[in-house]
Write a structure and sequence with these properties.
Blueprint: E1 4-9, H1 13-26, E2 30-36, H2 37-45, E3 52-58, H3 60-69, E4 80-86, E5 89-95, H4 98-104, H5 110-128, E6 132-133
Antiparallel strand pairs: 1-5, 1-6, 2-3, 3-4, 4-5
Helix pairs in contact: 1-5, 3-5, 4-5
Length: about 130
């Protein structure tokens, strides 16, 4: 089972993060948190890893709809978007919103997952013109 929606960009990391923020914003997602995994692992464990950031993205309307169906669904909301260096490219990855339906077994979440998928795919497509899995 794949659980991600991934695109690769031919751009530097900093530019990719900016473009991802803009693309998500155009689809109604706000960035609530940003975790600099690279800096955190260096500071806490003295470990060096590639440029890696987790953006906590939220579409309030979709989150509200999902929470109305199941209060525990916050555990599975497709909020995290990863931007990371991947060789000569920058990978952008989002949790596949359909994971909410498949893991919870709640068909009532399907309309929310479908709309979240549409919006995330549009954001990813605006970055490259294509959307891929894995």
């Amino acid at each position: 089972m794949t659980y991600d929606r991934t695109v690769h960009l031919d751009t530097d990391f900093a530019t990719a993060v900016t473009r991802v923020r803009e693309a998500l914003g155009e689809q109604g997602f706000g960035i609530l948190t940003e975790i600099d995994v690279t800096a955190t692992l260096k500071a806490k464990l003295d470990q060096d890893v590639e440029d890696y950031v987790i953006l906590g993205a939220c579409n309030p309307s979709l989150a509200h709809q999902a929470l109305q169906t199941d209060r525990s669904i916050g555990l599975l909301l497709p909020c995290n978007v990863v931007v990371r260096a991947d060789g000569d490219h920058t990978a952008v990855q989002a949790l596949d919103p359909q994971t909410m339906v498949s893991l919870s077994g709640l068909d009532a979440l399907r309309p929310v997952a479908d709309e979240a998928t549409r919006r995330l795919d549009a954001a990813l497509a605006s970055l490259t013109g294509t959307v891929g899995r894995g």
